[in-house]
């Protein structure tokens, strides 16, 4: 039971990560934003 919920949690995290990657691909300025925030 616990193992199954853990696996489900991992799958959800992977899906969220995938969505985030897809979104950042659509935002070319994201890299610029990240570098600006890092240097700030």
Description of the molecule:
90% of the residues lie in helices and 0% in strands. It has 40 residues and is mainly alpha-helical. The protein has one domain.
List keywords for this structure.
2 helices; mainly alpha
Indicate how many domains the architecture comprises: 1
| Secondary structural class | mainly alpha
N- to C-terminal separation? 46 Å
Radius of gyration computed on alpha carbons = 15 Å
On the 0 to 100 scale, the average pLDDT is 82
Strand segment tally:
0
How would you sum up the major sheet?
none
- Helix content estimate: over 70%
Q: What general outline do the C-alpha atoms trace?
A: elongated
Secondary-structure element string: HH
Helix count equals: 2
Task: Provide the low-confidence segments as ranges.
Answer: none
What percentage of amino acids are in beta strands? under 5%
